[in-house]
Design a protein that fits this description.
- The protein is an alpha/beta fold and 251 residues long.
- The chain contains ten helices and nine strands.
- α1 crosses α2.
- 36% of the residues are buried.
């Protein structure tokens, strides 16, 4: 029985699982990491397509069952661990294909991005609302810190929606499959990433206010905005990544 405390909502539909693998573009050259394999249905299908599958499971009961299920597989490595603490950098080049537990979606994406150039792509099943925020463009209510931070390092694409009824137990919301291509270099030039991150987070902490007000903790912000050609009366959700970078680089 899936454990709700671990955000376990399992997907058993083989046609949907096949679409996920297709979206990932998995080949026999790939080492694929799966986070939270659960009963191992996706794991088994990945093993048929990939050179190697590294499946990381936190739940002890599921891990013991997986050890029995995959005892005869020479290209599946099962790891009993917390993915948020796992040293992904030790794997070498890899792709991720996973039905991510809802409660760790954002932290696991950022943890994976810390793996740097070893990580090539992520194909993730996440809450539909989270997927929409990640791919959002400026100007809408979904656009915010998560959109910018993910798009800074990657090119995300929402592939398709999975209705909640496809999962067991049935969650409260629909899911979506995201394919995230990790860029060789950031999508924009930023002189000081820590300053850029702080600027973006500060701006969206009061997203309904104008930039002059939401960024008032930054010195001479009105003058800086004008100097880079940005109207101080604009709101944070209207700015592109490039415009946020221009503000940050003016310091």
């Amino acid at each position: 029985m899936p454990g709700r405390y671990l955000g376990q909502n399992f997907l058993y539909n083989t046609s949907i699982l096949a679409r996920i693998i297709e979206a990932a573009g998995t080949t026999k050259e790939d080492t694929v990491v799966e986070i939270g394999p659960g009963p191992g249905r996706l794991t088994r299908m990945l093993a048929e397509k990939a050179k190697k599958v590294v499946a990381i499971e936190l739940d002890d009961k599921l891990f013991q069952k997986l050890k029995i299920c995959f005892a005869g597989y020479n290209n599946v490595e099962l790891i009993h661990a917390d993915a948020l603490k796992f040293p992904f950098e030790s794997i070498g080049d890899f792709k991720v294909v996973s039905n991510i537990p809802y409660y760790i979606t954002t932290p696991i994406i950022f943890r994976l991005l810390e793996a740097g150039k070893s990580l090539k792509t992520m194909t993730l099943t996440v809450q539909k609302e989270v997927a929409e925020r990640i791919v959002a463009a400026p100007g809408g209510k979904d656009y915010g810190v998560l959109s910018i931070m993910v798009q800074y390092n990657t090119r995300p694409e929402l592939k398709f929606i999975i209705p909640k009824e496809a999962f067991r137990p049935v969650p409260r919301v629909d899911s979506a499959v995201l394919h995230i291509e990790v860029l060789e270099n950031p999508s924009i030039y930023v002189r000081d990433e820590k300053l850029f991150n702080r600027l973006v987070r500060t701006a969206f902490s009061q997203r309904r206010k104008t930039l002059t007000n939401s960024l008032k903790s930054f010195s001479d912000i009105r003058e800086r905005l004008v100097s880079v050609g940005i109207d101080p009366r604009r709101r944070p959700e209207t700015l592109t990544l490039e415009e946020f970078a221009e503000i940050a680089n003016s310091f």
